[in-house]
TrEMBL record:
One of its GO terms (biological process) is photosynthesis. The lineage of its organism: Eukaryota, Viridiplantae, Streptophyta, Embryophyta, Tracheophyta. SUPFAM superfamilies: NAD(P)-binding Rossmann-fold domains. Signal peptide: none annotated. This is NmrA-like domain-containing protein. It comes from Gossypium aridum (American cotton). GO terms for cellular component: photosystem II. Keywords: Photosynthesis, Photosystem II. Gene3D superfamilies: NAD(P)-binding Rossmann-like Domain, UDP-galactose 4-epimerase, domain 1. The keyword Ion transport does not apply. The keyword Electron transport does not apply. InterPro entries: HCF244-like (IPR044256), NAD(P)-bd_dom_sf (IPR036291). It comes from the Eukaryota.
Length: 185
């Protein structure tokens, strides 16, 4: 029995708490949305798509020993994700932009003290943000190798559209139900 060896690199997941928790929820709750001025772009990908592609790759001998990169269809900046959430929510966000230089300075400052090392570690992402890197990769070769149609991959737009459609419907239903149960004496 031959076992396929697959090396897999990936960008960030759509399901990361950051996308919904940092952008969508605060916009709906009319709270501040925190972002940066970084030009860094990330091609988010659905975990279910990654699992499906990995499963297909495991069963495909042509993939043995190959380096596969899994990335979403498009790379997004923080500002673009916020704008997409605003459009889908139908309301403007109260955006607080933190310059990346402030994050880097704070990280450097907190590295001097042992009791703030955890803070410095959590701010390590600021180094990535200042790199002006696009965290994406062309997927055509991977799709061809695995026999997958690019149209079957969930995009960030589709993921957030589904989220906002479902949550706005639930909010509307809850509001309608709460009005129905109000009793005035």
């Amino acid at each position: 029995m031959q076992v396929n060896v697959i090396f897999n690199r990936k960008d960030d997941f759509l399901e990361e708490p950051g996308l919904i928790g940092q952008y969508a929820v605060p916009i709906l709750e009319e709270k501040s949305v925190w972002g940066t001025d970084a030009p860094t772009r990330i091609a988010y990908m659905d975990t279910q798509d990654i699992a499906r592609l990995t499963f297909i790759a495991l069963r495909n001998e042509k993939v043995n020993g190959k380096l596969l990169t899994f990335a979403g269809p498009r790379a997004w900046t923080t500002q673009e994700v916020i704008a997409l959430c605003e459009r889908l929510a139908g309301q403007d966000a109260n955006v607080t932009t933190v310059p990346v230089t402030v994050l880097r300075f704070t990280r450097q400052l907190t590295r001097f003290f042992e009791w703030t090392n955890d803070v410095a570690d959590r701010l390590a992402f600021s180094e990535v943000l200042t790199s002006d890197t696009v965290f994406s990769a062309p997927m055509t070769e991977t799709y061809d190798l695995l026999g997958v149609d690019a149209k079957d991959i969930v995009s960030l737009e589709k993921y957030l559209q589904d989220y906002f459609t479902n949550i706005l419907k639930k909010l509307k239903d809850i509001k309608a139900q709460s009005k129905q149960t109000d009793i005035i004496f």
